[in-house]
Amino acid sequence: MDTFLNAAIEEAELGRAEGGIPIGSVLAHDGALIGRGHNRRVQHGSVTLHGEMDALERAGRQAANVYRASTLYTTLSPCAMCSGAILLYGIPRVVIGENQTFRGEEELLRSRGVEVTVVQDPTCIRLMTEFIALHPDLWHEDIGID
Which residues are catalytic? Predict the structure, then answer.
């Protein structure tokens, strides 16, 4: 398994252990992990702290050329908000663990020149399938469904 996707899965599992939504993400640059995070909406009562946003926040301020040479790994297809951040910072590559349980803005990313790879990792699928079955209301809140 890819080292960086594995780190994103570790983040997702950490989020689940904290009572949150099991979505993790990491930002890699030049073969090194520079930011890692997980969905902390529940833990922090946050409206925006998705896994991708947490990884970007934890990467700290970076020069534009760092973002433009980085890859974002996420266990789940990125939503509109997270895709917007990917586009805003010019991140050219996104590796997605799975998009069976939720398909985000992959086509938008592709249309703007982002290289999008979907792995369909069984661990990522299991984490979300189990979570959605156990907590459908929380999942719907997270993605904005009534």
Answer: 52
Can you tell me whether residue 111 is helix, strand or coil?
helix
Residues 92-131: tens digit of each pLDDT = 999 999 999 999 999 999 999 999 999 999 999 999 999 9
Is it the case that residue 144 has pLDDT exceeding 80?
no
Helical axes 136-143 vs 122-134, angle rounded to 10°: 110
Q: Is 71 exposed, middle or buried (0-12, 13-18, 19+ CB in 10 A)?
A: middle
Determine the 3-state secondary structure of 47 from DSSP.
Answer: coil
Kindly report, residue by residue over 3-33, the tens digit of the pLDDT.
999 999 999 999 999 999 999 999 999 999 9
Contact, 125 vs 119, CB < 8 A?
no
| Inter-residue contact 90 to 68 (CB < 8 Å) | yes
Q: Which helix (H) or strand (E) holds 36?
A: strand 32-38
